[in-house]
Hints:
The chain has a single domain, classed as Alpha-Beta Barrel (TIM Barrel), CATH 3.20.20. Helix content is 43%, strand content 15%. The protein has helices at residues 16-29, 47-54, 80-85, 96-101, 106-118, 131-135, 139-150, 180-198, 200-203, 216-223, 240-252; strands spanning 5-9, 37-41, 59-63, 90-93, 122-127, 163-166, 207-211, 230-233. Helix 3 (80-85) links the parallel strand 3 and strand 4 (90-93). The longest helix is centred in the last third of the chain and has 19 residues, at 180-198. Phosphoenolpyruvate (PEP) is lined by residues 9, 11, 167, 172-173, 211-214, 232-236. Phosphoenolpyruvate (PEP) binds next to strand 8.
Amino acid sequence: MRRTLIAGNWKMYKTPSEAVVLAEAVVKRLSAPDGIDVVICPPFTALEAVGKVVVGSRVGLGAQDVHWEKEGAYTGEVSAEMLRDLGCRYVIVGHSERRQHFGETDERVNKKGLAALASGLTPIVCVGETLSEREAGRANEVVAAQVKGALSGWASRDVQFLALAYEPVWAIGTGQTATPSRADEMHAHIRMTIAGLFGADVAKEVRILYGGSVKPENAKELLQQSEIDGALVGGASLDADAFASIVKAAKSS
Ligand code: PEP
């Protein structure tokens, strides 16, 4: 049985003091346990302050990126151990904004995911096709290649600790969403790809989140799909009421 996971990606929004206010509002609205895993991913600079707010609550802490080395001369980077020590339990890896603006390759995504895993963090590995790839009829091929690249060298026993997020690039921050049935089909394709690598029993344990303009208004229908195990929420996670409504929609779906 896959536990639903709702993750908020705060991107490069919120100073530490603003982040504390938002985190407090999220924790307040989501105080009752409901069987759904919830995580918020503030910028690096706010992790410590937000960690102090969420500690002891049902809201987990996640980061938005990680470097694959344990330590070293990598100016500006942050290791999985550093995140873990701050109380992080999750880290987003391979977000399309990082692929698009910061040269993130499948190889790096792979190394980051493995480093996260080695430090006991749950990597939320993002995959998704661009509009031109979809229009060229290459969406399935592109996403399968990203999944295979991300999971190269993973041991089957570790795959249960992975969360994947299918985020069609054309749906991120645009207000456009994949139709629930189209998203469900892609999730099934991703699961089949994982099954091809590690077997069906392993694949059925992997949580596959949908991301791309998830809002309170569309969350329920998306989360009702059998292959959609949660959501990675960008814009709407910056509003505590909207984020809490999405978690509630997950509960009732
Ligand atoms: C995201 O940042 O991962 C995302 C899906 O953003 P949005 O919900 O704003 O489309």
